[in-house]
Structures are given as structure tokens and as C-alpha cells.
Write a structure and sequence with these properties.
alpha+beta, about 325 residues, single chain, about 25% strand, 8 helices, about 45% helix, 10 strands, five-stranded mixed β-sheet
Length: about 325
């Protein structure tokens, strides 16, 4: 009654248990006379021993698992389809990625030449339009780079240059880069809670990229005259963290559950003017995990958000 394709495997596994005394467990198809078809079963058996430790009999059970197996195979088939689609997407992006930024770069280059008065100085009206073109080009290039980086992260093709670095090295880089965005909304900034001599282990450039994403979001979702702070903490032996707090609009429990999902965008008056791809947070979390750390968040509506970037600390 056992399916011919399963018989050899079933017999080999049973022979192995008889010879070794190891418990027997296997899934195989058995012909059902009532249904006229093969149905999946799970069989388990344990050896019963005498006082001398010899196997005297086997005690087991046989359970039909047809419905479970159908669901399992359907899930596996769906997962395989998703994996094929992701591979096709990754392959496609890998092919076109060298050319994608070319057009936006050319647009930006020519716009800048005209802003600089080459070949002839523009009028004030023309200058206004050219600046808008340059701003849009910069935004478009950022979107393209985010999509390409996300595809690279998904494909597991991101490389990491792991080394020891002081917290101060990162803080000194991110502060001037985030100043214009904070200044535009008169946001206060405090990093007095940072131990600049704390030594982390990771890819410094990627840590800077993560913190820039987090601080950019903090500035985006914090109303004018709000406040942002950065601190360092030792979470446990061998694990440290950069902690970014803001007094922004915060997130609901439902929003908090999806903040690290790709392409999620929160509809808010504060964010409408500078909507991106919704990839900054998922990319940041994957980069953190790629360095042996993590990126987590807590938040409360109307109070603000806290993002914690945890990373390994250097030995000693």
C-alpha cells in the first residue's frame, strides 16, 4: 500500500532503526482504498527495552497528515514562487543598475552648468526653474539609490568592512550633515549623553548611514521648535547602542508594527513634502543586523519616538 516512490526510503529508514535501536519517524504516502488515492501519513515508533537494554518490541502510531501536507506543499510552492520572483528582480536590477543613475546625473550636470551661466547667464525666472530641476534631480537620484541598495540587501550582496571605531568618530560625521535639516525647523539637538570614547565594532560608514536615516526621519516627523537627542548606552556585556530620541508626532501601535517593512509610508502633513521610497528604515535594520546588531523602535502618539541602534562593542 506504500507509494512506490516512497518504498525504498521507508524500508531503508526502518532497517536503520532495527539495526541501531534509534526511534523510527518518517512521512510517506499510503494508498487509501476508500478514496482510491494515496494520502500522506506520519509514522513514529519507539523501541521497548528489557532489563538488559535489548529491544524486545516496538511501540508506534500512524497518523494521517494529508491536509497538513497539502498546506505545507502549497506554502513551499508559494515560497519558491516568491524566491524566483525575487531572484528575477535582483537579476534585473543588477543588469540595469549601472545605467539607472546615468540620466539623472546628466540632468543634474546640465542644470548646474546653466545655473553657473554656461553657455549664457540665465534670467531670474530661468534660474528659479533650473534650481527646481536640480532639486528634483537630487530627489530622484536618492530614490534610485535607495531602491538599488534595497535590492542589494535582499540579494545578500552587501559587503561590510568591520573594524573598531570610537563613538565620537561617528558623532562628528553626522552632526554637520544633519544640521541644515534641523536648522530649517529650529530643532534643538543634544548629544551630551554620548560617551565619545565608547568603542564599537562594525562598518563605520554603514553606521553613519543608519544614523543619518534615523535622524533624518526624526527631523521630518518632529514639528518646528522640537528636540532631538542622541546618546550612547551599554545594553549588556559586549553590546552597546546609539539611542536617538525625538519629540515628534510619534507612531501608533499599528504603525510601529510596520515601520521596518519595505515601502511603508506614513501619511502626515510633516512628511508630505519630502516623501521617499519607504526603504530607509528596512534598509537600516538589515544593515544593522548584517553587522551583528539590530535597529529597534518604541513610540507613542503625540509624545515622540526612540530608535535604538545596537552594535557589538570592541573586545576589551
Amino acid at each position: 500500500f506504500i507509494h512506490p516512490d516512497d518504498l525504498k526510503r521507508v524500508a531503508a529508514r526502518w532497517s536503520h532503526s532495527i539495526e541501531t535501536g534509534e526511534p523510527y519517524e518518517i512521512e510517506f504516502r499510503v494508498f487509501s482504498v476508500a478514496d482510491g488515492e494515496y494520502r500522506w501519513h506520519l509514522v513514529r515508533a519507539n523501541p521497548m527495552l528489557d532489563a538488559d537494554g535489548r529491544v524486545v518490541q516496538w511501540f508506534g502510531c500512524n497518523a494521517e497528515i494529508e491536509e497538513h501536507k497539502r498546506l505545507e506543499m502549497a506554502r513551499d510552492a508559494a515560497l519558491e514562487q516568491v524566491n524566483r520572483a525575487n531572484k528575477s528582480k535582483a537579476d534585473f536590477l543588477a543588469i540595469i543598475s549601472p545605467d539607472l543613475p546615468t540620466a539623472p546625473n546628466a540632468i543634474g550636470g546640465y542644470a548646474q552648468l546653466m545655473i553657473d551661466g554656461i553657455p549664457t547667464p540665465p534670467s531670474e525666472g530661468q534660474l528659479n526653474y533650473l534650481r527646481r530641476i536640480a532639486k528634483s534631480q537630487h530627489h530622484l537620484l536618492g530614490l534610485i539609490e535607495a531602491v538599488l541598495l534595497h535590492a542589494k540587501v535582499e540579494a545578500g550582496k552587501v559587503t561590510y568592512q568591520i573594524a573598531d571605531f570610537w563613538a565620537r568618530e561617528v558623532l562628528d560625521l553626522i552632526e554637520p550633515l544633519t544640521t541644515p535639516q534641523r536648522a530649517a525647523k529650529r530643532l534643538g539637538y543634544d548629544c551630551s549623553g554620548c560617551d565619545g570614547k565608547l568603542v564599537f565594532r562594525g562598518d563605520r560608514e554603514k553606521v553613519v548611514q543608519i544614523l543619518l536615516n534615523v535622524l533624518s526621519n526624526a527631523a521630518k516627523f518632529t514639528p518646528a521648535d522640537g528636540h532631538i537627542s542622541v546618546a550612547t548606552e551599554v545594553l549588556s556585556p559586549g553590546v552597546g547602542a546609539f539611542v536617538v530620541k525625538d519629540t515628534g508626532i510619534g507612531m501608533s501601535a499599528d504603525e510601529l508594527q510596520v515601520v521596518f517593512e519595505p515601502y511603508v509610508q506614513f501619511d502626515s502633513a510633516l512628511a508630505r513634502e519630502s516623501k521617499g521610497t519607504g526603504l530607509g528604515m528596512p534598509i537600516s535594520r538589515e544593515l544593522a543586523r548584517g553587522m551583528g546588531g539590530d535597529l529597534t523602535a518604541t513610540s507613542e502618539r503625540g509624545v515622540g519616538s526612540v530608535f535604538t541602534l545596537s552594535l557589538p562593542l570592541a573586545d576589551g
